[in-house]
TrEMBL record:
One of its GO terms (biological process) is transposition. This is Transposase IS30-like HTH domain-containing protein. Residues 4-47 form the Transposase IS30-like HTH domain. InterPro entries: IS30-like_HTH (IPR025246), Transposase-Integrase (IPR051917). One of its GO terms (molecular function) is transposase activity. GO terms for cellular component: cytosol. Pfam families: HTH_38.
Length: 166
């Protein structure tokens, strides 16, 4: 497994200073930052505008590229979202059931966890308060009994486990 660490803004600023002000070589900069010279060379080549390397511009470019690469592609699932908005009912037709039914109908669907992440991040119209309850309202641990854990995974609570009102 690679232990690659991305270049930080502090390192980029140091590269800018050493390259533009002191006119140091790529080899010297790599030695100063304790990085491979290929990494420094690639960084300079990628982000050098005209003859000057600017740390802020390269950090800005990196941030934009990073956000674009990690974006959830909701636009790929428009047909599924229409199906979800029409059929979602928290008591009888949950998110899990909608994903399963859409797969049966041959609609391109994301993973169930992805849909829950979209809800959590407010990327779709369904809100977390519209759900019957949060997906895992407690974590599985030794302090909870196993039957309570099994009940938490159900879409509805058995009547025997509903608290009695006095």
């Amino acid at each position: 497994m690679n232990n690659y660490k991305q270049i930080s803004l502090k390192e980029r600023t140091l590269i800018e200073y050493l390259l533009n002000v002191q006119n140091k070589s790529v080899f010297f900069i790599a030695k100063e930052l304790n990085r491979n010279r290929s990494t420094i060379y690639r960084e300079i080549k990628r982000n050098k505008a005209a003859m000057i390397y600017k740390a802020k511009d390269s950090q800005f470019t990196r941030d934009i590229n990073n956000t674009l690469s990690h974006q959830n592609k909701i636009s790929k699932y428009n047909e599924f979202l229409k199906f979800l908005y029409i059929n979602f009912n928290p008591k009888s037709f949950s998110i899990d059931v909608c994903v399963f039914k859409a797969k049966e109908l041959g609609i391109k669907t994301p993973a169930t966890q992805t849909v829950y992440n979209w809800i959590k991040n407010k990327q779709i119209k369904i809100k977390s308060k519209d759900l019957l309850r949060p997906r895992f309202w407690w974590k599985k641990s030794s302090k909870y009994k196993h039957y309570l854990w099994e009940i938490s995974k159900m879409n509805s609570i058995l009547i025997t486990y509903i608290p009695k009102k006095y």
